[in-house]
Structures are given as structure tokens and as C-alpha cells.
Amino acid sequence: QVQLVESGGGLVQVGGSLRLSCVASGSIVSINVMRWYRQAPGKQRELVALINADGVTNYSDAVKDRFTISRDRAKNAVYLEMNSLKPGDTAVYYCNAYIRAMYSNPSHRDYWGQGTQVTVSP
Predict the structure, then answer these.
(1) Burial of 71 (0-12, 13-18, 19+ CB in 10 A)
(2) What is the pLDDT of residue 38?
(3) Residue 106, pLDDT score
(4) pLDDT for the residue numbered 104
(5) DSSP SS3 for 44
């Protein structure tokens, strides 16, 4: 079994910062791309940022230059540093990872965390 657990969400004022963390655990063989998604009330889930196995990153236009994604391969972790937060960033943030796991069929698949709430107050 593989689990992704997020942490670091909370309530912050406009212009503030938060750092989200996501740690993968279980029978992991390797992790390829890791992503952060978010879903605001009444809206579809959207991709915020991703980082591949080589450390190459990509961001949505909405967060570019404000958010930074990073990963710690030794800890099977991915982070999202969020700065200059806006009310429009309010959402549940989800961690996603494409993982090769033992005892899994298929051996490679996407896994999701449970989500962490980020609320930006005016």
C-alpha cells in the first residue's frame, strides 16, 4: 500500500505565505512526477505545479512567480512554497504522484493525498 499525506494548510491573510508538504510512504520502488493540484468550491480540480524525476518544474500561469515546488527524493516528499497569497488561491490542495510500487497491479499508477485546506482572507 502507498499513502500520500499532506500537511501545512491553514488560514493566512492576503500577501502571506504557506508551505505545504506531502510525504509518500509504503512499498515504493520509485516516484516519477509529483504534482500539486487544487480545487476551489464549485470549480474543477486544476493543476498548480509539477516536478519530474529530474527536478524539472512547471507551473500554472495563475501561480507562476509566486509558488515554488520542490522535492526531497530521500524522503519521498514534495513541497509547495506559496508566497504573495491571494483570495483566489483559496482551495483544497491535493498532492499527486506517479509511483511504482511493489505488490501493486498495475505496478505504476497515480496516487492522491487526502487534501489540505488553504484559506486566504482579505
Answers:
(1) buried
(2) 98
(3) 85
(4) 82
(5) coil
b or e along 12-42 (b: 16 or more beta carbons within 10 Å of the residue's beta carbon)? Answer: beeeeebebbbbbeeebeebebbbbbbeeee
Q: What secondary structure does DSSP assign to 76-107, as a single string?
A: TEEEEEE-S--GGG-EEEEEEEEEEETT-SSS
Cα dist. 10→29, 60, 63, 102 in Å?
A: 32, 22, 18, 34
Backbone φ, ψ for residue 73 (5° rounding): -65, -35
Instruction: Tell the residue number behind the cell numbers 488561491, with chain if given.
Output: 89
pLDDT band at 1 (very low <50, low <70, confident <90, very high): confident
C-alpha torsion sign, points 98, 68, 113, 30? positive
Question: What is the average pLDDT score of the chain?
Answer: 96
Q: How far apart are CA 52 and CA 12, in angstroms?
A: 29
